[in-house]
Amino acid sequence: MSSRNDTNDNGLQGSDSYVPLTTYAIHKSYGGWPNFMHCHGLKEWDLHDQDTAKRIVEGIKQDHREEWEEERRSMRRR
Known about the structure:
Layout: H1 23-29, H2 33-39, H3 47-77
């Protein structure tokens, strides 16, 4: 029995429904918010760095969506 419409490791699905990557999933993949900040050379206590981290997360989400859309286009060409 499969779960979540046969979602593969990068969160892309085999169905026509896009499931957005969550902020939680992104943070968790780095071991949490503090590690996410550290991996990007940002300081947790710096408000400017927090805003920068949020923009990075949004960029990751956008890239994930674009990757899914490209995969869908390539599947339709076959």
